[in-house]
Amino acid sequence: MVVNELGATLRTWRDRVDPAAVGLADASPRRVAGLRRGELAMLAGISTEYVARLEQGRAATPSAQVCASLARALRLSDDEEAHLMRLAGFATGPDRIPRLVPGSLRRVVDHLGANPVAVYDALWRLLHWNGLFAAVFGDPDGVPADDRNALLVQFESRNPRVRQTDAERAYFEQSLVADLRATSVRYPHDPDVAALVSRLAGNDRFRRLWALRAVAEHDSAHKTAVHPRVGDIPLDADVLTTLNTDLRVVVLTPRPGTGARRKLDRLG
After folding, report:
1. What is the C-alpha to C-alpha distance for residues 14 and 30, in angstroms, rounded to an integer?
2. Cβ contacts of residue 244 below 8 Å, gap of 6+?
3. Neighbouring residues of 262: CB distance < 8 A, sequence distance ≥ 6
4. Is the Cα torsion angle 149, 150, 151, 156 positive or negative in sign?
5. pLDDT of residue 27
6. ∠ at Cα 163 (157, 168), nearest 5°?
7. What spatial distance separates the first Cα and last Cα of the chain, rounded to whole Å?
């Protein structure tokens, strides 16, 4: 039922988009009022076959990232995008951690091109990032969506493009775990919280910090990006929490007096 409703909704929204408004006007006759499937696929960066399968109810529901791409291509409002996310199974009820990045916030992030910027949810899942973030730390598209989580990266894999002193690492990990503890209290019935804690419990450092039961909001950090072309980039990270969505916008700025600004400009 959800898949069929999703397909019907996508088809209706596709039909209403004026091709000329997205730069696709041509002289050839059209059998559809709005975008062709291939045109929507091109604008969203997915295959035409996948669009057809979604509309016909023959595909699994799309990922949050695909939903965001479809929303941009279809020029959906924030309310419509939230509806699309719900149809795709990304419910944002009071018991679940919000994961929808409003189009307005994505536009702000995309225009902050002078600094690496990323958006995380309250579980520290990476949801959106700008081009400079990908250039500095590596493109998250190359990482499975389930592994794009700051806690998993820190305690399981450690991004080779990030270096921290022992003091920076200790503070960062304590702060992240205390923030996760606070999230677990705010969303006690979200199964994703329990699943993440269970997965991380295999790590000794996490287990020790979790046992402290410290509660705090993670709001800043220091780290050095290690880039293969420009070398070390010392950065300060500040976390901004959005109203009513519990999303975390992480803005990374060059540490003064280090030459980091010049290196970011080269990568940008």
Report:
1. 13
2. none
3. none
4. positive
5. 56
6. 100
7. 45
pTM to 2 decimals?
A: 0.78
CATH number where 32 lies = 1.10.260.40
Helix axes 191-200, 166-186, angle to 10 degrees: 150
pLDDT tens for each residue of 33-66: 789 999 999 999 999 999 999 999 888 778 877 8
**Contact 190/96 with Cβ under 8 angstroms?**
yes
Task: Give the C-alpha separation, 240 to 261, whole Å.
Answer: 21
Query: Number of folded domains in the chain?
Result: 2
Neighbouring CB atoms inside 10 A of 136's CB total: 23
Same domain, 220 and 157: yes
Render pLDDT for 89-106 as a digit per residue (tens, 0 to 9).
776 567 888 888 888 888
Helix (H) or strand (E) holding 20: none
DSSP state, residue 130: -
Q: What is the Cα–Cα distance from 47 to 52, expressed in whole angstroms? A: 9
Looking at residue 96, the DSSP 8-state letter turns out to be S
Same structural domain, 54 and 134: no
| Single residue among 87, 118, 140 that ends a domain in this structure | 87
How far apart are alpha carbons 231 and 161 in whole angstroms? 10
